[in-house]
Amino acid sequence: MRKSLKVLSLALTLCLVIGIILTGCGSTQSSTPETEDSANTSGTDSQVPGNKDSVKLTFTYWGSPNEKAAIENACKQFTEKNPHIKVEAIQVPGGDYNAKMTAMAASNNSPDTGYMTGDLGDTWANQGKFVNLFEMLEKDDELKKEDFLDNIWFTIAPDNAWGIASAGECFGLYYHKDLLKEAGYDSLPTTAETAMNWDEFVEMLKKVTLDKNGRNAADPNFDPNNIKQYGLMFETWDNPIYNFIASNGGAWTSEDGKTLTITSPEAAEAVQKLADLINVHHVAPSPLAAKSLPAMNIALQSKLTACAIGGQWINLDLGNEKVNFDIGVLPKLKKSVTVGVSGATVLFKDSKNPEEAWQLFKWMANPEGAIELYSSGLWMPTMKKWYTDPDLVAKWVDANPAAHPPGFKDAMMNQFLNNGVQSPQFYLKNNAKLIPIITSAWDDVWMGKKTAVEALKEAEPKALAEFQGRYDR
Q1: pLDDT digits (tens, 9 = 90+) for 268-295
Q2: What residue spans define the domains of the chain?
Q3: Fewer C-beta within 10 Å: the chain N or C terminus?
């Protein structure tokens, strides 16, 4: 009897132990998929929000009211696709952006991803604050570096991109169709092969520059002191001018990045030709006269200028105002080019949710997520297929002809794809100090106080003292 009781007691104890073990195993198994799903943040699994921990991301940016609405809508659509990820989109005025980012970093509250200026980005990239985007793309299953345009990476080394252009942006020759037609021009060339040379460009501008008596600048009795309609407006910051330096065979540095060449004869000649439009041909406003003129999109709309060398982003305002405008390819000196320029979008290395931040980053880089930013005329894509696939082109170009007139596809979209050159902000070391030295030297050239050769020769020692080469060489 005692033996039977012993056996029974042993059996009961064994069952109890097995039950505890099985219960523990069952508990472990039920929690494992949830843990794995929390780590798996790809958009493909986001339809099962119950399996994922809730995540909040911060995206910072600057921009117009139209851009604000589009960014907020893009973030909303991202959350609809990924219900476990909430996005706080914070708009910061452009002039305050660096100060805001610095304050957020000081309080250990940097955004997960967002816009970044070239000067602060250059500094922070060298401090290791950003994720290397090339490394992210190497291990990504959906996107590769080859899916993007070649000239949109902000780098600190050939194999390290700290940022990507927030959008594809470049320059073209905008014109008011009515004003050019009055001067005998139905349209302007739109391709690199047919681009006007400099003499043809000046001749055209003279015909569309009018004084208060209606005489054009080709008339010997033209009054340059009383101009009512300029032939051309252009801005004098670095990138609009760099279009023509690059067109003339000039560059900021030598190909190997070891020599500063922005003071070269090719660069000086291009700057001088632009200055002569102001001081010799009288077809463009002086810096003093330009202060009394509105922004170039408004000047075009108001017929204060017939043409403008403008960035692609003014398509938004021209389209919204229903201006009768079109776009030609920039005139060429030695070769036809357009400069690509943009602020950066970055991934912050100290994000608490790096995988989710990467998913948001990819979403914002894909026009599908915010198509109105592109169809409105504000942005161009950074992904190649949106330039080459007719169905995708139709979604952002053909969808809004008011902001994308007939010349747009060749003069801007295809020109940027095939003949785009990088702004120095993408690759030039110490550019925040170096570029202002050169642009300040140009000021006396626009005023007619010095020749370009004189001004650049004087600036060269200061520029050389700040020159450190380029990151991508």
Answers
A1: 999 999 999 999 999 999 988 999 999 9
A2: 55-169+342-398, 171-340+428-466
A3: N
